[in-house]
Write a structure and sequence with these properties.
About 25% of the residues lie in helices and about 25% in strands. By secondary structure, the chain is α/β, with parallel strands linked by helices. A hairpin with a 7-residue loop joins strand 6 and strand 7. The longest helix is centred in the middle third of the chain and has 15 residues. The chain is globular and about 45 Å long.
Length: about 200
């Protein structure tokens, strides 16, 4: 049984999103966590995971996709529960959306989008400086990106007791065919970078 296509969406009109705020705005959102270095650069601490783990990576695909070393295949039941849990929690937080481009060659460019709760602005601040800016057409929240990452560290905070029992606290859920990544229960900036490179 496959997971409904409607659960693998790249557009979320039902959530409150601040679309592509400036670098200065994002740094101000993250100020409550910032330790400023002597050079004036912002520094932040990860609280939910210090490094990435392939063991927490679940790959979903209908067509017999072979998972990578140490990764796990995500079965339909687990995937459906995880997506329904995330979508049910998304309306409870304020989101930031960032559109960037991977690649500078027009023939090999990918439009990528990061959706992340505003309280984790520090992750976006560190990530979006590593990629090329997106044009105004790509910054339209109704336009689907090539690759989407939904980054939700507190995804189980308000979930039902039965969902908390069945789902891992940390879960990187990947649908390679749809170009969608869910980074759940992690607040490490490296997972953002890996989600788009994967």
């Amino acid at each position: 049984m496959s997971v409904a296509t409607s659960l693998w969406t790249k557009v979320f009109p039902q959530i409150s999103v601040l679309n592509n705020p400036s670098q200065a705005e994002v740094r101000s959102f993250a100020a409550f966590e910032e330790k400023t270095a002597a050079s004036g650069a912002p520094c932040y601490y990860t609280r939910k995971a210090g490094s990435r783990s392939a063991k927490s990576t679940f790959v979903y695909e209908d067509n017999g996709f072979k998972v990578g070393r140490f990764q796990q295949k995500a079965d339909s039941d687990l995937t459906k529960l995880a997506l329904e849990t995330v979508h049910g929690q998304m309306g409870k937080v304020d989101w930031l959306s960032f559109d960037r481009m991977i690649g500078s060659n027009a023939q090999m460019q990918f439009h990528v989008r990061l959706l992340i709760p505003k309280q984790y602005a520090r992750i976006a601040l560190l990530w979006f400086q590593t990629l090329f800016p997106a044009g105004s057409a790509q910054r339209n929240p109704a336009k689907e990106p090539d690759i989407l990452t939904i980054y939700f560290p507190q995804w189980l905070e308000h979930a039902s007791a039965s969902a908390k029992e069945r789902l891992p606290e940390r879960m990187i859920l990947v649908n390679p065919e749809a170009g969608i990544n869910y980074v759940l229960g992690v607040d490490y900036v490296g997972e953002t970078k890996m989600s788009f490179l994967r």
